[in-house]
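Shipment paperwork, digital attachment
Item: protein structure file
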Amino acid sequence: MPVGICRLCLEDRELQDSHLYPRSLYKALQNEDGGNPNPVLLTTEKFVQKSGHIKDYVLCHDCEQRLNRYGENWVTRHAFNGRDFPLREILRGYPPVEPTQDDRLVPYAGAEISEIDIDSLIFFGISLFWRASAHEWTLLDTKIQLPLDAHEEQLRLCLLGKVPIPDDVCMNIMVCSHDAPCRSFSALGPLGDPAGERKYLIMLAGLNFMLNVESAHFGDYQWSTTHSPHRYIYTSSSFELMNTYLTASAFLKQKGLDAKWRLHLEL
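Attachment content:
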């Protein structure tokens, strides 16, 4: 293993082969029903079906274990694995916070559901955005990075347990309500004003993490997973629409239009 500066603890350590998309969730990307089981790797430049992990030497062993212990271990046991989706089934056993006839966004009080480790979900989501910002990853020949600017350092300290989630950053977590969730990994951002409010989106294994930075809307915090006392978590039927938008955005970019595209893997 090479020796270098770990991006999380900033110590000179032996670096592990770190993954942007958790290796333990790759099974959800594979098609086991016949034909080529490998995912389609889609960037603004290429489209190919092959086995491909987004990885590089980024974190030391201790920091890898920290991300696993406080987030990834619980999430990978409860996210969509290609066949089962334990987190969605847990939510189906509880009533939503308020009745709604619109299944595009149904709120649940995550802090009040004992089967859900909401802290692990939040930690995992924050770690995804931080990883995507702290290092320039490579998918095929395309460089991948979601720039969080000054907030990158705040989230690094948050992952180390040194500071709470910043007041000017909030995150919402959504769970796909479809029986067959999108088998994809997508990342998009920043969307919004470069000098003001910005949004980032990461979708994977039936989960959608949306990060708002420097939001001016009180409702973003009041109904967020990170800042509301109820730790709201949502089921959503809109994943297919979002997935279609992201895929279309990639091809628009190929035609010379700026779609703020970063990466996409889909079966």
